[in-house]
Amino acid sequence: MFKYIIMSFLVLATIRSHADGQKACLENLTDNYTYSTRHFKLYDTDVEREFGKDHLAQSIAAIRVLIDKEGCKPKSINFGKGTLGRSSSKCNRVSRRVEESVVCFVESNLGYFWVTRNFESEYHIIFNRWD
After folding, report:
1. In angstroms, how far is CA 63 from the centroid of its own chain?
2. Which of 5, 69, 85, 91 is the most buried (most CB within 10 A)?
3. How many CB atoms lie within 10 A of CB 63?
4. How buried is residue 51: exposed, middle or buried, by Cβ count under 10 Å (0-12/13-18/19+)?
5. How far is residue 6's CA from residue 57's CA, in Å, rounded to a whole number?
6. What is the pTM of this model?
7. What SS3 class is residue 33?
8. Spatial distance between the Cα atoms of 106 and 103, rounded to a whole number of angstroms
9. For 70-117, how does the pLDDT look when each residue is reduced to its tens digit (9 = 90+)?
């Protein structure tokens, strides 16, 4: 019986720690809830790996670098989960003839991101919290 009580306590402590990490990350991304939308800029040199034409994987990698720079723990963000259950992230070209016109929409448990890259090797990431 004592073993089950300790196991229950550990599970609850882990859940609370995870929720605290998400809250802290959201506070960091929104400048302590000052903004519901924020723009961030990263450079190609910040994102160490190149994913070729897999724009979604590249965008998620850039977001992971961003949340690390903002002081978030890696486990505080979940890209497989949106507000309505499973996330539906995807990338599309804005202009069919311009390869660099790709925009990615990435959902997470914290909010959603729009990710673009310009010709100067910069990522522009817009974070929007779920309201």
Report:
1. 5
2. 91
3. 23
4. middle
5. 39
6. 0.80
7. coil
8. 10
9. 999 989 998 887 666 677 899 999 998 888 889 999 999 999 999 999
